[in-house]
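Sequence and structure are no longer studied apart. As an example, we show below a sequence and the C-alpha coordinates encoding its fold:
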Amino acid sequence: MLEPDDSPRHWCFGCGDRNPEGLGIVFEIDGRRVTGRFSARQVHQGFPGLAHGGIAAAVLDEAMGWAMYAAGAWAMTARMEVKYRRPLPLGEPLALQAEVVRERGRWLEAEGAIRRATGEMLAQAKGLFVRVPPEKALELQEFFLVPQSAEAAGPPPRRQRSHPRAP
Protein backbone atom coordinates (compact mmCIF):
# COMPACT_ATOMS: atom_id res chain seq x y z
CA MET A 1 0.00 0.00 0.00
CA LEU A 2 1.06 3.53 -0.71
CA GLU A 3 0.24 6.74 1.04
CA PRO A 4 -1.78 9.01 -1.27
CA ASP A 5 -0.61 12.52 -2.00
CA ASP A 6 -3.70 13.93 -0.29
CA SER A 7 -3.32 11.77 2.84
CA PRO A 8 -4.23 13.65 6.04
CA ARG A 9 -1.05 12.20 7.57
CA HIS A 10 0.87 14.93 5.74
CA TRP A 11 -0.78 17.41 8.14
CA CYS A 12 -0.16 15.41 11.32
CA PHE A 13 1.09 17.72 14.08
CA GLY A 14 3.74 15.19 15.09
CA CYS A 15 5.10 13.73 11.85
CA GLY A 16 3.39 15.58 9.00
CA ASP A 17 5.70 16.88 6.31
CA ARG A 18 3.33 19.69 5.25
CA ASN A 19 2.38 21.14 8.64
CA PRO A 20 4.51 24.29 9.12
CA GLU A 21 3.52 24.49 12.80
CA GLY A 22 4.08 20.79 13.46
CA LEU A 23 6.93 19.01 15.17
CA GLY A 24 8.44 17.54 12.00
CA ILE A 25 9.53 14.30 13.65
CA VAL A 26 11.29 11.81 11.39
CA PHE A 27 10.76 8.17 12.45
CA GLU A 28 12.36 4.87 11.54
CA ILE A 29 10.78 1.53 12.35
CA ASP A 30 12.88 -1.43 13.42
CA GLY A 31 10.65 -4.37 14.25
CA ARG A 32 8.34 -3.25 17.05
CA ARG A 33 10.58 -0.36 18.06
CA VAL A 34 10.71 3.13 16.61
CA THR A 35 13.43 5.73 16.77
CA GLY A 36 13.22 9.31 15.69
CA ARG A 37 14.84 12.70 15.47
CA PHE A 38 13.42 16.02 16.59
CA SER A 39 14.61 19.57 17.24
CA ALA A 40 12.40 21.99 19.15
CA ARG A 41 12.03 25.30 17.34
CA GLN A 42 11.42 28.80 18.66
CA VAL A 43 7.66 28.42 18.08
CA HIS A 44 7.75 25.61 20.69
CA GLN A 45 9.29 27.84 23.38
CA GLY A 46 8.04 27.94 26.96
CA PHE A 47 10.74 29.53 29.13
CA PRO A 48 13.41 31.35 27.07
CA GLY A 49 15.58 28.85 25.22
CA LEU A 50 13.49 25.86 26.32
CA ALA A 51 10.56 23.98 24.79
CA HIS A 52 7.19 24.09 26.53
CA GLY A 53 6.53 20.91 28.52
CA GLY A 54 3.52 20.15 26.35
CA ILE A 55 5.86 19.77 23.38
CA ALA A 56 7.78 17.00 25.18
CA ALA A 57 4.46 15.27 25.93
CA ALA A 58 3.34 15.59 22.30
CA VAL A 59 6.66 14.20 21.04
CA LEU A 60 6.40 11.21 23.39
CA ASP A 61 2.76 10.58 22.49
CA GLU A 62 3.63 10.63 18.79
CA ALA A 63 6.58 8.27 19.28
CA MET A 64 4.47 5.77 21.25
CA GLY A 65 1.74 6.10 18.61
CA TRP A 66 4.28 5.13 15.96
CA ALA A 67 5.23 2.16 18.14
CA MET A 68 1.60 1.06 17.81
CA TYR A 69 1.97 1.14 14.03
CA ALA A 70 5.23 -0.82 14.30
CA ALA A 71 3.38 -3.45 16.35
CA GLY A 72 0.69 -3.65 13.67
CA ALA A 73 -2.09 -1.93 15.62
CA TRP A 74 -4.48 0.90 14.84
CA ALA A 75 -4.70 2.30 18.38
CA MET A 76 -5.30 5.58 20.21
CA THR A 77 -3.90 7.00 23.43
CA ALA A 78 -6.07 6.26 26.46
CA ARG A 79 -3.66 7.42 29.19
CA MET A 80 -0.12 8.76 29.33
CA GLU A 81 2.27 9.58 32.17
CA VAL A 82 5.30 11.79 31.51
CA LYS A 83 8.35 12.14 33.73
CA TYR A 84 10.24 15.34 32.96
CA ARG A 85 13.91 14.82 33.82
CA ARG A 86 15.44 17.92 32.19
CA PRO A 87 14.03 20.71 29.99
CA LEU A 88 14.16 20.27 26.22
CA PRO A 89 16.56 22.81 24.69
CA LEU A 90 15.59 24.68 21.54
CA GLY A 91 17.53 24.00 18.35
CA GLU A 92 19.35 20.89 19.55
CA PRO A 93 18.86 17.58 17.72
CA LEU A 94 17.22 15.11 20.11
CA ALA A 95 16.80 11.34 19.86
CA LEU A 96 13.47 9.60 20.44
CA GLN A 97 12.64 5.98 21.02
CA ALA A 98 9.47 4.08 21.79
CA GLU A 99 8.20 0.52 21.80
CA VAL A 100 5.20 -1.55 22.76
CA VAL A 101 6.07 -3.41 25.95
CA ARG A 102 2.82 -5.32 26.57
CA GLU A 103 -0.33 -6.35 24.74
CA ARG A 104 -3.55 -7.36 26.52
CA GLY A 105 -6.31 -7.88 23.97
CA ARG A 106 -7.53 -4.43 22.93
CA TRP A 107 -5.02 -2.74 25.26
CA LEU A 108 -1.38 -2.06 24.49
CA GLU A 109 1.24 -0.49 26.75
CA ALA A 110 4.17 1.50 25.42
CA GLU A 111 7.20 3.31 26.75
CA GLY A 112 9.07 6.19 25.18
CA ALA A 113 12.01 8.47 25.86
CA ILE A 114 13.65 11.68 24.63
CA ARG A 115 17.44 11.95 24.97
CA ARG A 116 20.22 14.31 24.06
CA ALA A 117 22.86 13.07 21.61
CA THR A 118 25.03 12.41 24.69
CA GLY A 119 22.45 9.94 25.95
CA GLU A 120 21.22 12.20 28.76
CA MET A 121 17.56 11.45 29.52
CA LEU A 122 15.30 14.48 29.13
CA ALA A 123 11.82 12.94 29.39
CA GLN A 124 10.20 9.50 29.64
CA ALA A 125 6.64 8.33 29.20
CA LYS A 126 4.45 5.31 29.71
CA GLY A 127 1.24 5.06 27.76
CA LEU A 128 -1.85 2.92 27.59
CA PHE A 129 -3.39 2.60 24.13
CA VAL A 130 -6.63 1.03 23.00
CA ARG A 131 -7.12 -0.66 19.64
CA VAL A 132 -9.86 0.88 17.57
CA PRO A 133 -12.77 -1.38 16.60
CA PRO A 134 -12.29 -3.33 13.33
CA GLU A 135 -14.73 -1.11 11.41
CA LYS A 136 -12.79 1.99 12.52
CA ALA A 137 -9.51 0.30 11.56
CA LEU A 138 -10.94 -0.25 8.06
CA GLU A 139 -12.02 3.40 7.90
CA LEU A 140 -8.56 4.58 8.97
CA GLN A 141 -6.88 2.24 6.52
CA GLU A 142 -8.99 3.62 3.67
CA PHE A 143 -8.56 7.21 4.88
CA PHE A 144 -4.77 7.13 5.13
CA LEU A 145 -3.69 4.53 2.59
CA VAL A 146 -4.34 3.57 -1.01
CA PRO A 147 -4.58 -0.21 -1.51
CA GLN A 148 -2.43 -1.69 -4.28
CA SER A 149 -4.53 -4.86 -4.33
CA ALA A 150 -7.73 -6.21 -2.85
CA GLU A 151 -6.14 -6.66 0.59
CA ALA A 152 -8.35 -6.74 3.66
CA ALA A 153 -7.92 -3.92 6.13
CA GLY A 154 -5.07 -4.87 8.37
CA PRO A 155 -2.63 -2.85 10.40
CA PRO A 156 -0.75 0.04 8.84
CA PRO A 157 2.27 -0.89 6.74
CA ARG A 158 5.61 -1.24 8.48
CA ARG A 159 7.85 1.20 6.73
CA GLN A 160 9.96 4.23 7.29
CA ARG A 161 8.43 7.63 6.78
CA SER A 162 10.58 10.64 6.42
CA HIS A 163 10.19 14.36 6.68
CA PRO A 164 11.93 16.58 4.11
CA ARG A 165 12.80 19.30 6.64
CA ALA A 166 16.05 18.38 8.36
CA PRO A 167 16.16 19.13 12.08
Remarks:
- The helical segments are 53-70, 134-144.
- The radius of gyration is 16 Å.
